[in-house]
Amino acid sequence: MIQTILGDWNVAMEQQLRAENPRVVAALAQVVLRQRPRHLATYQRLLRACWLERRWEEGEEWGRRLLRADPNNPFAWRALALASEQQEARAQAHAIWQRALEMDPYAPAIRAGLSRTSLLTAGHGALGEEQPVIMLNLACLATLYMRGLRWELADQTYRRLLQADPRRVDFQVGLMVARWQQQARQSAYRMARQLTERHPHLLLAWIVLQALGDDNDRALAQDPILTMDPDGDFASSWLGLHYEGHAHTLDVSKAEAELLQTHLLE
Question: Which of 40, 57, 68, 210 fits a 20 to 30 Å CA distance from 239?
Fold first, then answer.
């Protein structure tokens, strides 16, 4: 066996995505997932590869897996919405596009999907008809506050949202992060404990628990974090956290190492 660096596989997949070589991405991803089957950054890259080849059904599967760990992920919601459209479940697709909009209010592809399914749902869509106006709701506003690092306003908004729908895990995660960033340590810690108990695949909840908990909490959080995001690639690239993971290795065959080197050096 040959020892390789996980980060090199991440870089190679990114390079192949930029080159629009989805089948190479899939081949690289298979090697990673054989050893790290819950590696979230690879899920995300496979999802993007599925879009390049318009493999909507497969994209839906990776999107669902990703949402278990990151319910605020707009890419995953977009994958589910596209799959619903392909299944001609128009009303369902529209509802999912709305959820995607709440995670990324100004993404052109999401706004286009929402407009498209609005017209289809209403039975319109003739050439030249005026496009429906996309209205931002309170959940969109909460996302914009988070992106703007306006933690107090995000906190207030997520509390209002949870009063209306206390079951929404994405709102709970948003409130937890807002409190963590405001240094409301006890409140953020309690939320992280509750979320990890109820939803054991939530990466952000484990990260907060590791950051704010005691030695026992840190030990408890270590395994799920190492399983989902061992080198911090997903947290830093997709969640926008300055979270320092550690370099990790994959022991691969000679053929797999050659696959990596071929596409890493292109």
Answer: 57
Which amino acid is present at 159?
R
User: Per residue, what are the HEC states of the chain?
Assistant: CEEEEHHHHHHHHHHHHHCCCHHHHHHHHHHHHHHCCCCHHHHHHHHHHHHHCCCHHHHHHHHHHHHHHCCCCHHHHHHHHHHHHHCCCHHHHHHHHHHHHHHCCCCHHHHHHHHHHHHHHHCCCCCCCCCCCCCCCHHHHHHHHHHCCCHHHHHHHHHHHHHHCCCCHHHHHHHHHHHHHCCCHHHHHHHHHHHHHHCCCCHHHHHHHHHHCCHHHHHHHHHHHHHHCCCCHHHHHCCCCCCCCCCCEEEECHHHHHHHHHHHCC
Whole-prediction pTM: 0.89
